Description:
By secondary structure, the chain is an alpha+beta fold.
Amino acid sequence: MQMETTQKLFKVGMTHRTDMQTLTPEQVNFEIDMCVGCDRCMRACPVPLSSQVNIADLNRATISNEVAPHVARFTDECVMCGSCVPVCPVDNHRDLLMLSLKQRLGIPWDGQVDLSRVASNIPQGWSLPLLMRNIREQSLFQNTQLVPDNYLLHFVATSQVQILQAGEELIREGEFGRDIFFILDGQCEVFSSGTDQADLPMAILRHGEYVGEQGMLTGQPRNITVRAQGQVAVLRVPEQVMQRLIEVVPAVEDFFVQLSNARAVERILSELELFEGVTAEDLHLLAKQAEMRRYERDGQLFSEDQKGRPVRESFHLLLDGFVKVARKTGRQEQPERVIAYRQRGDYFVGGLDMLGDQRAVTVSAITRVTVAEFSRAQLKNLLVKYPVFKQRLQQRLTLYQAAKTAAHSAVFEPLDQVELKQMAANLHSEVEARAGLHALVSDGVVEGTDVLVIDLDKCIHCNECEEACERRHGRSRMNREGMVVGNMSIVTACRQCQDPVCMLCSRAGIARKPSGEVYITESCIGCGICAERCPYDNISIVSLDDDNEAQPQSWQRFSRIFSKGFGKERGKQRQPLPMAQVATSGPLQFDDPIEDIRKKIAIKCDLCAGYNNQACVQACPTGAAIRVNPVSFFGSTEDILSLRGK
């Protein structure tokens, strides 16, 4: 089969390896010449179809138009995990060769559309032209040059049209979800919970509008409830399908990010006391002017020293993530002192910790952080228009000069001798509390939503929790020995992070239930990308060939990982998990026996999702093992810093 080359340089499925560089034609030829044809790379490849592809066919496709159909499909399915690289005896960059082939062949969305799948997605009483016309009413899809009909048809084929009746909820506040919804017909009400948990009406969404982008972009729980008013037709788009469109049309991501960030900024500003009295129109204008910055882990937002400190009237607003607030000590053995942690909704003015002691600080990202930055010029209109706002801001800046001196002299608080004696007498001093807090943050506990802890005063070290986990799941997904804070041991297992960086899978191999459990789906091929991205090493990759109980088909061994178990740990019969029931849950799903030839899978703690109990907790004979929400259990960061032993 001859395939035409494309001039578009796509990096489909490359969001986890954005630093890869394409090989030049000369480098491609050199790598192919070096290949010895041993097929080790294909044996190491986790993609099921790799068992049907040999390296000779792949090399031929890389440097010519002789591309067999199964090779073209394998090229699309390659997830760029890099498993092929370390096994090559001649140190070839097989991953870069695959990137080159992917870019040359283009994407399946350029090709023929399975119209039968599109037709099955058309609701009763609708036609394909009507469906396409309603989708084109979305501002995102109005430009046919940007999103041609062929892309849109593939988009529809891998999504789902839903018809909601009056009162049905599309999104519920507090639940997790990464699907995005485009309203095709009808209208929905938007609510948010007030302080008394009553629903507060916020807006009306009509056809041509969308909702759900906040969860898709940030992974955070939904911050609104959306309910149908009368009958409503929506296009429900899975995260993986949206990600494919973003890779094909990068402008789509810019569209979502800009609008979502502006909405988030406007909402947070309206809740801050500093901006009380500022009209909604002015807040809306200010939010549109904000400069958005994204910081990866350990990235520095600003510093308290002369070179790194922002200008006096600058304003930094945290939209999501955790940051570390510190001051430099000038001592070599301990160059900085962490004084607090801040998160979504907290802010800094002129580089001062406004929620603390209003002194200059150095701020660094603990997790992925999004920050809205406002310059003096952007705040100038508000300062002139709202004298009260100016007065509040000036009050928060009065300690600026004192802060500069304090920050460089390492003098932080006056020493109270009585308090020092009391602290020395207590078992849990402030130093210990701070150390415990730093450990909780650095090990990802505070950013989790559910952790397993063991009360060491009750634990008898019987190891029954681990053994129960293994009996239920076939392999233990936890290690009871973990970080110790006070008398509590925090078990080494997935904490179901608020913003799980592991959830970046083009095959929908990892998903999240609305209640927050992150679990491995039956689409997993064990490529290891999620395990590589987990900063706490709480995901493992296992080979199906390692299963000692021989069975005739590898797919049966794969299925056992999701179903085997016995004894009291089993609880009720395990219920199928949401995405495991959907045959077309992602853009790379095929009804093909080849997909059943699995080699590896990922395993992780998913809180026994699908069961009515958690094996580790149920099996503990002394009640030492419990599941807790880290913030509720350990307290907020400020609570921990103020701990005193009794």
